[in-house]
Amino acid sequence: MPLTLTVNKVTTTVDVSPDTPLLWVLRDVLNYTGTKYGCGMGLCGACTVLLDGKAVRSCMTRVSGAVGRAITTIEGLSPDGLHPLQVAWEAIDVPQCGYCQAGQIMSAAALLARTPHPTDAEIDTAMSGNLCRCGTYPRIRQAIHEAAGAHAAAQSEGGSPNADQS
Questions:
Q1: Same domain, 6 and 72
Q2: What tens digit of pLDDT does each residue of 21-79 get?
Q3: Which of 44, 55, 89, 134 has the fewest CB atoms lying closer than 10 Å?
Q4: Tens-place pLDDT, residues 81-124
């Protein structure tokens, strides 16, 4: 069945069953492979994308539920890879294996969009659904704080960080 999706500001039509998980449409049909398959049950957060700016587990989201809504994957967070979160992740050397990091960054982007200056407790709560088997949680929290500061600095200078959802 043809469904029209807007992924990373690009509108496209896919011919899939409406109950297909969004994850598989993103990865296998549209080739957005930054979104990872982890547990398939919405528990690990590796598949996190933004749906109208809200972090969702794409493995548990039917593609039909994404029609008419803005889908943002890690590839669409910043056209040049310079979103404040991506810059902070690299500067602080957050990833070890890196598998969960796209989902981590997408959850953090949703957090910063609604809470520009989160506390440690707010970060911990927002990120609690994203698992990192390497245990880089302290660096993830540090990177979120750094990105929040970069975002605030860019806005105070009259600029805007490279992001759709920051």
A1: yes
A2: 999 999 999 999 999 999 999 999 999 999 999 999 999 999 999 999 999 999 999 98
A3: 134
A4: 999 999 999 999 999 888 999 999 999 999 999 999 999 999 99
Whether residues 28 and 91 share a domain: the answer is no
The verdict on pTM exceeding 0.85 is yes
d(C-alpha 19, C-alpha 147), whole Å: 36
Give the CATH number for residue 14: 3.10.20.30
